[in-house]
Design goal:
- Helix 3 runs antiparallel to helix 4.
- The N and C termini lie far apart (about 40 Å).
- The radius of gyration is 16 Å and the shape is elongated.
- It is an all-alpha fold.
- The chain has one domain.
- It contains 4 helices and no strands.
């Protein structure tokens, strides 16, 4: 799978670039990740009829800490 290895290497190089890292840590990226996490949490709450709101919020908070800057 030389093609997959090449793609993986290029992706790692891309993500290792300081400009890319700065962009991922920007306020704009934080705002986008918050919107995505809010949307997913709201959808899960609707699908479950609100039965697991506390767990959903806990998971949303944990995910925000893992991918966000705040």
């Amino acid at each position: 799978m030389a093609g997959l290895d090449d793609i993986t290497k290029k992706a790692q190089e891309f993500l290792g670039d300081s400009k890319v890292q700065d962009a991922l840590k920007s306020q704009q990226a934080e705002d986008i990740s918050d919107k995505v996490l809010d949307g997913v949490a709201d959808t899960v709450k609707k699908v479950t009829g609100g039965k697991f709101d506390e767990q959903v919020e806990g998971a949303r908070s944990a995910a925000d800490k893992a991918v966000g800057t705040e």
